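Example record

Each entry pairs one chain with its bound ligand, S-adenosylmethionine.
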Amino acid sequence: MTRPNGTPREPGDPAPGAGSSPALPFRARTATGSVFDALADAYAATRPGYPEQILVDIERILGRSLFGADVVDVGAGTGIATRLLLRRGARVVPVEPGPDMLARLLDDTPGLPAVRGDGEALPLRTGVADLICYAQAWHWVDVPVAAAEAARVLRGGGALAVWWNDVDAQQARWWQRQQDRLERMSPGYQRGYRTRPYADELRWTGHFEEVVTLSGRWERRIGLADYLTWQRSKSYVAAIGDRLEDYLAAERDSILRAFPDGVVVEPFRTLLVIARVPGPLAA
Ligand SMILES: C[S@@+](CC[C@H](N)C(=O)[O-])C[C@H]1O[C@@H](n2cnc3c(N)ncnc32)[C@H](O)[C@@H]1O
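Structure tokens for the complex follow.
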């Protein structure tokens, strides 16, 4: 991740006090699980992974290796971040409200101490984690409530790390056409729905001694069929409902105009925010 530490505002962040950008008009957590449960197969098949550099940066801020660290992966979904953390030697407890997402995680990575749960009421004892992660999931929680829960479950000196892959294609006509279409077809969707002053929101909770933001850019190449499956795995695409197939057909045409060989070059910006609670962390 290339962005220097300590910069108070991020590109795209509203100024403090300017108010949050619009959230989606629904919560992912439902009475029985998660809106992602119905999307688990598409999700597991085509969601992008995360750059390893995220973990390097977290280790630097934490001041310790993740090898042997106690890590909670909240909103773990099908386990994309869980497996990244396991490969680095962390002891990971995945927490996820969606039973189908959790089942998919355990099918792919059996034997983990995974639990059903909500980031706003973690089913964990106080002071047991060195690191709590939310990969692509922090925008689904109420920040003051989930930040207090994270601070409770962390050991002194531990950190909350939240990150996202955002498609970084504002200059591309195919992306603008897609966003226009989503704003017409997905109820309440607005392209800036995830642009929020995440670092400031965490500072304002008062639980953290240090809040650092980093970002990096990367891209992947993905075939058209998989690209459309990835589209299906998004909650706001699923929310299109009866007109979903119309949306996907229009996307197919639009993408083929931009990428006639059927291989989409998809640029990402990964945003990482790390918030450390006070105290020394045992190595
Ligand atoms: C976009 S997915 C990310 C999944 C996984 N972390 C990854 O990187 O692929 C968001 C996940 O957050 C979960 N989620 C939604 N609301 C939540 C909440 N209140 N507490 C914990 N997890 C939540 C969803 O069920 C879903 O699995």
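Residues 28-29, 34, 36, 47, 74-77, 80-81, 96-98, 101, 118-120, 135-137, 140-141 surround S-adenosylmethionine (CB under 6 Å).
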